[in-house]
Design goal:
By secondary structure, the chain is of the alpha+beta class. It has four domains: 3-34 and 227-284, eRF1 domain 2 (Nucleotidyltransferase, domain 5); 41-224, Nucleic acid-binding proteins (OB fold (Dihydrolipoamide Acetyltransferase, E2P), Beta Barrel); 292-408, Aminopeptidase; 428-510, Hypothetical Protein Ychn, Chain: A. Helix content is 31%, strand content 24%. The protein has helices at residues 92-98, 104-107, 159-172, 190-213, 226-234, 247-260, 277-280, 284-288, 327-349, 365-378, 408-412, 428-445, 457-464, 470-478, and strands spanning 3-9, 14-20, 23-30, 41-50, 55-59, 66-69, 113-120, 129-131, 136-137, 141-145, 150-152, 177-181, 218-221, 241-244, 268-270, 294-296, 302-307, 311-317, 353-358, 386-388, 396-401, 450-455, 481-486, 496-499. The strands form five sheets. Strands 4, 5, 6, 7, 8 and 13 form a six-stranded antiparallel β-sheet that branches. A hairpin with an 8-residue loop joins strand 7 and strand 8 (129-131). Helix 12 crosses helix 13 (457-464). The termini are far apart.
Length: 512
Amino acid sequence: MKKEILINSTEYEKRVAIIEDDRLMELQVERPDSDRMVGDIYKGIVRTVLPGMQAAFVDIGLPRAAYLHSSDIGKDYGRDYDSDDLDEEEAPAEIIRKTRRQAIERVLKKNQTILVQVIKEPISTKGPRIATEISIPGRFMVLVPDDDHVRVSKRISNWAEKRRLKKILSPLRPEGFGLIIRTEAEGKQERDFKADIKRLLKLWAKLKKKADNSPAPAMIHKEAEMIVSMIRDIFTDDVQRVLVDDKEDYKKVISYARQVAPDLKNRVELYKGEQPLFDLYNLEPEIEKMLDRKVWIKKGAYLIIEQTEAMITIDVNTGRYVGSKNQEDTIFQTNREAAREIARQIRLRDIGGLLVFDFIDMYNRENRRRLYDEFNNFLKHDRAKRAINPVTEFGLMEMTRERVRPSHLHALSELCPLCSGRGRVLSKDTMATKIERWFRRARADRTHRKFHLVINPLLAASMSDNGVNRIDRLMKTHKFQVNLVRDTTVPMEEYKVFDAETNQEITDKYKV
């Protein structure tokens, strides 16, 4: 597989694109007003403990309090690991959830000072989610203070390699620290790990000293900026080239590569072309379409992607594709191409939480199993944690995917001021009826008799120029005098009513 990383920087935005076989597969965007928080370490103060929710809210110096669930509390705060229950192939958060946990009110008290790390970005109205178990990522491993285990990434599937890595790292594990061996460690030797451990221990000593000397709430450690963290996490042997269009960012990447992957630094290039870097790879049209509801796939089939705060649904439609063989084969081929594109869209849009895919019904059980296997294969390069259920007889597949930050839909767009995020506006007939009800209430009050009605020209045309003049009928029914005013600045779902004699707006007076 051909894999490239493109880094584009402007004054107000930095973007990192991952290209696989000449297709845009992932995009990360960072802006000055929306710095990433995952990985940041804070010294916080417990403000509220909620036994009923088994959670606490912690002041870490941000406008919104951080959320700490009891499952994210490490053994330093009253949790004891039972080594018999541990699965060494699982991540720390999953391990913590499997251990016996005490009631949160026994572990945390109001105004208690604790050291925490952000594990999920603020999303919508929710504050960041935090954990008390601190982890510091390096190139080949993650250092976990106050732990005593060596664990191996699930993504290393070769059991012989897992055993080899644990055999190397177990004697190297510093006293009082745990180690999580990352996927990038596959095939590496002892000297590589020693250098990584030395860097991580030095960083931990520095931030521990800062934590001891800083009054809470305070930020103790800021995770590496997006470009450096992306290079740390994805710049591996399978990346053929890293292309950077900004000189300062190029220096950062080269400097980091010299420290952690000197054998790869020759693959980093400074782009000096006149044509914008993303235009050179024709990425901008792909990025423009990234927020579309409708996504076309091969042979005229398409996806409809509906995204809410809690769940994402993706519907598969055959569209113009009719196939050339039997119906079941046509459906399977359509579903297969849809699964490939769904896997890409999940990574590209960075969507997480609960996802439900509505594939076209397949009567053949073997085809449903094949589709499930294919979908897992299409997602093999996805770095997010996930769980996928097989396709049901109704063609539905459920999936959960780790969500640590808002998706690109929420990060790059905002609610429509007209429809408030519904995606639809009230019909002209519905709005006309609402206005008529307003005048019915005004008639019952008997205070006003002459009005100026200000509405959108399209709504005005529907009410007055459509064969049946609803404004005339309104005046005859209620014995009112209504002067219709067309105003293009008034949205379709709004209207304004003024008393014609005093010119005072009275819209809210008779609104529901």
